[in-house]
Amino acid sequence: MEPTELIRYRRALKRKNYSPHTVKGYINILGQFIKWLSVPLSEVTRKEIGTYVDHLLRKRRTPKTITCHLQTIRLFFDYLINEESRSMMINPVTRISLRLPKPLPRHLKDDQVRTFFDGITDLRDKAMFMLMLRCGLRVQEVAELTVDAVEFGRKQIFVLHGKGAKDRVVYMSEDARSALTAYLEKRSSKARGLFLVQKGPMRGSPISVRGIQKRIEYYARKSELNVSCHRLRHTMATQLLNADADLATIQDLLGHGQITTTQRYCRVANLKVQRDYYKAMTVVLQRAQAQQEDDEEEETMESMERPNHLRVAWDNELS
After folding, report:
1. Taking Cα atoms as reference points, which of 77, 258, 250 lies closest to residue 164?
2. Is residue 217 in some structural domain?
């Protein structure tokens, strides 16, 4: 049976308009933590938190997963202290000191993109993955798209309640628009959802996140490429940066809350870094060459202005 504190916390999260996915994740993490505890919540100290981290490490949880657990537990104790008036309680998670690896976003090269899409014959699947590649949509956002969110005239898509419950507008390239048009012309259903299940008992209902992931896993095996939904999104960001798109523009299109998240792509967009380097280095070398020529010209002028007997003496001294 779910502890009373968790039941009330679930209600509090829903009142704050947290997404069902986030609420489910928080409650699942807290359920594991409370089940592991051997003391009441009011007696939890930093010692118990440290021991719990050791427990997660023994279970081979990654630093990123452990950090997620600690952040969730800290928010839960903040709720107990501030909203349930447990003023005598002290939040045991004061800081999170795990060192997290910072892997670079991995993207597909142009020839890999062509190979991947050449293997897709299903019009629905091609449209789904083209929206990820050209519009930077998350898999959850693709699964929740509706027909009326697409404006073909303006070549844009309205993303409702993206990550962090944020709305945004993304734009369709010509190939993405063509792929989506081809799919909708074939689709006979009048369902509100954009991408629908095509076979089985769930036919005609919106495709799930897991359903989309299974499709891309199938095409990844078929093309023998390491492709995921998020990697298509990474590819879009890297391609835009290499095409000299502004970082703030990419941030807006991807729906990143912080510019620092978008800046990670600067570390992988080697083409832009390479262009910037050679462009700047050309200027540096031109300035150095100009300075050298000025110095040589000045030295020549000084030599010509010396009296003849001094010039001979100077030349003898140099020789």
Report:
1. 258
2. yes
